[in-house]
Amino acid sequence: MDALPKRPANYVPLSPVGFLPRASAVYGDRTSVVYGRLRFTWTRTYERCRRLAASLLSLGVRKNDVVSVIAPNVPALYEMHFAVPMAAAVLNTINTRLDARSVAAILKHSQAGVLFVDYEYVRLARDALLIVADAGVPTPLLAVIDDIDMPTGVRLGELQYEELVSNGDPAAELPSLVDEWDAVALNYTSGTTSAPKGVVYSHRGAYLNTLGQLLSWGVGAEPVFLWTLPMFHCNGWTLTWGMAARGGVNVCIRQNRAADVYRAISDYGITHMCCAPVVFNILMDGEARQLAAPVHVLTGGAPPTAALLDRVERIGFRVTHSYGLTEATGPALACEWRHQWDLMPLPERSRLKARQGASVLSLADANVLDSNTMASVPRDGKSLGEIVLRGSSIMKGYLDNPAANEEAFKGGWFMTGDVGVVHSDGYIEIKDRSKDVIISGGENICSKEVEEVLLQHHAVADAAVVAMPHPHWGETPCAFLVAGNKAAVLCKDEVVAFCRKRMSRFMVPREVVLVDALPTNALGKVEKVKLRDAARNLVPSKL
Amino acid sequence: MDALPKRPANYVPLSPVGFLPRASAVYGDRTSVVYGRLRFTWTRTYERCRRLAASLLSLGVRKNDVVSVIAPNVPALYEMHFAVPMAAAVLNTINTRLDARSVAAILKHSQAGVLFVDYEYVRLARDALLIVADAGVPTPLLAVIDDIDMPTGVRLGELQYEELVSNGDPAAELPSLVDEWDAVALNYTSGTTSAPKGVVYSHRGAYLNTLGQLLSWGVGAEPVFLWTLPMFHCNGWTLTWGMAARGGVNVCIRQNRAADVYRAISDYGITHMCCAPVVFNILMDGEARQLAAPVHVLTGGAPPTAALLDRVERIGFRVTHSYGLTEATGPALACEWRHQWDLMPLPERSRLKARQGASVLSLADANVLDSNTMASVPRDGKSLGEIVLRGSSIMKGYLDNPAANEEAFKGGWFMTGDVGVVHSDGYIEIKDRSKDVIISGGENICSKEVEEVLLQHHAVADAAVVAMPHPHWGETPCAFLVAGNKAAVLCKDEVVAFCRKRMSRFMVPREVVLVDALPTNALGKVEKVKLRDAARNLVPSKL
Q1: What is the ipTM of this complex?
Q2: Which GO terms describe its molecular function (chains A, B) (predicted)?
């Protein structure tokens, strides 16, 4: 049995990039991407990606080089999910909501060779490149993604996306993947601190997670997918590659405005979309419309509340709740629905759906472990423990960050840092998220990063940042500060202005509370639970 | 990027066996297996499999040992798909329609250590073991699968399946899989000739094909699956493992009698089943009933005819046509349906559905190559070439058969031996099956094997066996014989009786034609195309 060798015919490295040539072969005449008046077929998308990959090689891009991109959900960002790894390079999608300082930190840490930027974000990119240059670090080549809505004749950079596509040789020989453990993507979970955490995905992990997502969510044939989830979030929860696997239609929109979303749903017959609950808030504000046909929505970041669930399901959305994190290549758990629950009253249905659920099929295991004994907690829905994951869709690790890897991988598990329970039916529910993370409008904010900035303020002696509930954004950061110098005046507005200059806008605390001292436990650790309770009682002041 | 190591948390060997512990964890209280008055949950199935694996280890079964089984679709056969590899052994399911000689050939070639046999097939097993012993080869241990319908108090063998399950220690430590390239199953495509072809599946290939099948066929949540397809055919096209992945219900029946099938469909609310077209013939004979809810059927072996498709779809079956072979771990192509075809008239729909279609997602590529140039044929629906496959769900190879491996793997492809075309939409259609294969009632018959037996007849000088169309079985073997000795009388009935003694019943030619000489081409090769044309004009004599 063991003597049978691996052969080119029966051992092909797993890669999500392979879904594209297959889509071109068997879904070739179907629509791949729609964006305004632009419309491509799968054959065309494959050809465009081959051309772009050839151009990247001509620019000198080599294996494991990082190619970064700052863009909203436009066709170029979609195509780069294939074209960049087709040149053996690693795709680094950057959150458009970051400030120049954070973008610069990512460019420096990743040593990106090329930076693609959507025309709307050219200033952000330029500012980031200045910071990189100031630090004496070589700057990446800048390539501007032109757009159908861009004024013609405008030239914003040396390299233009469409020129790279059209100048690329579609017949050029592209490097073939030899090792499925090779990197395909690099996604940063934080970038402003001294030790950025760049999450590296392997081709193998991305391939497996793509199949796992399609199965867990139950994406059938011929999906019409609306890109409300930013593709820069875990490569669109791997559904960038998933739509090629399914031969689906990718409907691209630049922004999640309610009118645009509803128009796309009715114009294109959207069947599927993903989003954080904040998008539901946008869709429900004022102009909620009854959908002509059900739209399946995979939501994550925070469990949908019963009230929200009731409202969105009433107008025709079919919500699946999932839980994931960048390190798990997106959704790791999904609340797989059971038919028998259909008949339950809404509050009960909502309670069941608010649970994070069962592991996706690409994971080998998900568990909740007692932090002291590292044994599984009882399946009683009460015993708390840390949610841990194991499987080939877990990241290769953090790039150049041994300390973070040491902390993340323990005892054969990936430690999520989130606290949860296991119910008697085996479904996992989060009870307390990682102390460090605040999720605002679907964006993860690392409280430690905000605290580090606050501590740079001359009048701040101590700082703790926790999540404060917010009706629109879900959560916003709330800062508790201890003044250090009796002489210096600690002014809330001044602190906020101080933060604005030093971090991405969505990270800035919406509420600042001055306290005499932070509550600490016997070991001297800040008791964030008490601060979160305090924050819960504060009314957001800037609604 | 390359420096990040594989860790136990992020590089878990792929194996379909892992779907069972997951099913026990997240679908634990759901029904796993139904058989008559027997009903198990996923938790129970997992426990039973752990117990059986522990018993196999106690019997001395070790890594790569072959554990064979002869059984219809009963729970034991289902459980063995997990329990055997959980003991690091290799599962060898044997076709119940084989004769003792063929079974013996498989047992000898595979060097099986244990043979499980359903109570109904004990005589077949005993006869086979006698042949093995006569050849001086060590015989496997015999374990009888007792059954709820078996007379109580009857003891048919030394070892009893249920005793092995109940005596096994569910807490025993089982070997853990280290290399996903390890063998999980061994399936014979032919066993009577001197060089049996035992197809070896890796854990990796079986895992990937399982996900691929679920996606290609679109098996959603909570399927209720009726086992009309024998599990011994490519491990039930990997749906044995697939039902665990989905937490589905496995409804087991011993035989595909129309009444049993219709009763199961209505009693259990069957949603999915697989079968060869011959099962449709059984279901349509006389007592066709209107189904209360649609039942999705994956069919393969032969394309459903327009007339059959019309009849079965009219009563509520939703047919997906697929193409596969043992070497590809079951279905390799599936005719993925497009919504736009729904509105076409039946003959056109049927023509489209009769095509074998697009590669499953676990394959890297499927193609049709010109046999001379080894280049892709044009996508014109006319140019003939050999269908070739490539991907990680292709078998590891044939066990101890270097010549067959040499022939099967060429130029980075697995050669199917089937001749087809590619249509302009990329869908593949078979035009001429491998010259050697006759498919009768879903069973593959190797014409060469039948010819070899015929040539052993003292009065036969030359023999060629081809497929003859048959209204019920699809095809049956038709033998063209040249008498060698003018003195000896070549009698048709005597030839048939001669065959009956020497091969499995379904392989015996239903028609024997005496000819003066076989038609040959310029190179002296028998022109089977001409013989098939001749056979097509013969009316089956034994309907």
Answers
A1: 0.90
A2: 4-coumarate-CoA ligase activity; trans-cinnamate-CoA ligase activity
Q: Is residue A370 included in any domain, yes or no? A: no
Q: Which of A301, A332, A362 is the last residue of a domain?
A: A362
Q: Which among B29, B396, B413 has CB closest to A4?
A: B396
CB B185 within 8 A of CB B206: yes
User: How high is the mean pLDDT in each 10-residue block of chain A (543 residues)?
Assistant: 93 98 96 96 98 98 98 98 98 95 94 96 95 94 85 70 96 96 93 76 98 95 96 96 98 94 96 91 82 94 79 91 92 93 88 92 95 92 94 96 94 93 94 76 83 88 90 88 77 90 90 90 80 81 43
**Is A388 within the bounds of a domain?**
no
Residues 411-470 of chain B with CB under 8 A from chain A are 412-414, 425-427
- CATH code at position B473: 3.30.300.30
Enclosing domain of residue B445: 438-536
Least CB–CB distance from A12: residue in B6, B214, B392: B392
Min Cα–Cα distance to chain A from B184, Å: 10
Q: Does B340 touch chain A (CB under 8 A)?
A: no
Contact status of A46 with chain B (Cβ, < 8 Å):
no
Give the whole-angstrom CA distance, residue B319 versus residue B294. Answer: 10
Shared domain for A181 and A78, answered yes or no, is yes
- The DSSP code sequence of A51-72 is HHHHHHHHTT--TT-EEEEE-S
A390/B8 touch (CB, cutoff 8 Å), yes or no: yes
Q: Does the beta carbon of B359 lie under 8 angstroms from any beta carbon of chain A?
A: yes
- The minimum CA-CA distance between A229 and chain B, rounded to whole Å, is 23
Q: What is the mean pLDDT of chain B?
A: 91
Residue B297 belongs to some domain of the structure: no
Instruction: Write out chain A residues lying below 8 Å of B243, CB-based.
Output: none
Contacts with B186 from chain A: Cβ below 8 Å: 1
pLDDT of amino acid A3:
87
Give how far A41 is from chain B: nearest CA, Å: 12
Contacts of B285 (CB under 8 A, 6+ apart): B258
What pLDDT band is residue B543 in, cutting at 50, 70 and 90? very low
Enumerate long-range contacts of A528-536, CB under 8 Å, 24 or more apart: A528/A435, A528/A464, A528/A466, A531/A464, A531/A466, A531/A478, A531/A480, A532/A466, A532/A467, A534/A480, A535/A466, A535/A467, A535/A468, A535/A469, A535/A478, A535/A511, A536/A468, A536/A469
The maximal CA–CA distance of chain A, rounded, in angstroms, is 79
Of A9, A26, A426, the CB nearest to B25: A426
CATH number of the domain bearing residue B89? 3.40.50.12780
B205 neighbourhood in chain A, CB within 8 Å: 10
Residue of chain B nearest A397, judged by CA positions: B4
- Does A409 sit within 8 Å of B10, measured CB to CB? yes
Q: pLDDT tens, B363-422? A: 999 999 998 899 999 999 999 999 999 999 999 999 999 999 999 999 999 999 888 999
Q: Is A242 on the interface with B (CB under 8 A)?
A: no
Q: Which residue has the higher pLDDT, B517 or A157?
A: B517
Neighbouring CB atoms inside 10 A of B382's CB total 11
Amino acid at B30: R
Touching check for B6 and chain A: CB below 8 Å? Answer: yes
pLDDT digits (tens, 9 = 90+) for A301-358: 777 777 888 889 889 999 999 999 999 999 999 999 999 999 998 888 888 988 999 9
Count of CB pairs separated by less than 8 Å, A with B? 170
Location of structure tokens 């679907």: A442
The domain tally of chain A equals 2
Which residue shows structure tokens 């269908």?
A: B387
Please name the residues between 163 and 192 in chain A that touch chain B, using a CB distance below 8 Å: 181-183, 186
* A505-543 per-position pLDDT tens digit: 889 999 999 998 899 877 777 888 889 889 988 865 443
* A352 has a chain B CB within 8 A of its CB: no
Residue A170 lies in a domain: yes
Q: Which of B168, B158, B164, B148 is nearest to B35 (CA)?
A: B148
